[in-house]
Design a protein that fits this description.
The protein has helices at residues 2-8, 10-13, 43-48, 53-61, 76-83, 110-114, 119-128, 137-159, 163-171, 177-181, and strands at residues 17-25, 29-36, 66-71, 91-95, 100-105, 131-136. With 182 residues, the chain is an alpha/beta fold. The strands form two sheets. The chain has a three-stranded mixed beta sheet with strand order 1-2-3. Strands 4-5-6 form a three-stranded mixed beta sheet. The longest helix is centred in the last third of the chain and has 23 residues, at 137-159.
Length: 182
């Protein structure tokens, strides 16, 4: 697919636009991440072409495979949010060491973010090289509440304090007994 875009988009052939990564589900859908070395050239617009002419030529060559052209970003969170388009993202939590990201989307955007049979999130993960977990705002809120309750209970039991003191410690950001001792 990268070679097809190189043939159709002169800016890629000339090295002005670079294809950073490609993810495909052959015959169905693909995502391609592009970046411009020239700030005055929109890499996505150049790949789409006038009225979609350039991308349509590639789509025709691939027998109608849908192609999402994504702006690449050196910032992992921004790149992953872009890769999950067209879904809206409310919040991201990165674990850079594990190359894992938790993405929170509005409840009505969950199916769009995941895609048909997980296709959107799977291609976004392949494109970015990150493991992506998608949660709704409701699920994320429930998880936060559960963690807060567990931390409060830990402080109440370990330090023999009442519920209010345990909740204050948890809400102040303490996650363990060791953190309080410091």
């Amino acid at each position: 697919m990268a070679k097809l875009f190189t043939m159709e988009v002169p800016e890629i052939y000339d090295g002005i636009i670079e294809i950073k990564s490609v993810a495909r589900d052959p015959g169905s859908r693909a995502k391609i991440a592009v970046v411009s070395r020239d700030g005055s050239i929109d890499p996505v617009g150049a790949c789409v072409g006038m009225r979609g002419s350039r991308v349509q030529a590639v789509v025709a060559e691939l027998q109608g495979e849908k192609i999402d052209i994504i702006p690449w970003s050196p910032d992992a969170a921004t790149f992953i949010v872009n890769a999950l388009q067209p879904a809206e993202v409310s919040k991201v939590v990165l674990d850079e060491d594990a190359e894992r990201i938790e993405v929170v989307v509005p409840d009505d955007q969950l199916s769009l973010a995941i895609g048909r049979r997980g296709q959107n999130v799977r291609l976004a993960s392949q494109l970015t090289g990150w493991s992506i977990d998608i949660l709704t705002e409701q699920e994320e809120s429930e998880n936060r509440q559960k963690e807060f309750n567990e931390r409060s209970k830990l402080f109440m039991e370990s330090l023999d304090v009442d519920e209010m003191v345990g909740q204050v410690m948890a809400s102040e950001g303490f996650a363990s007994i060791e953190e309080i001792a410091c």
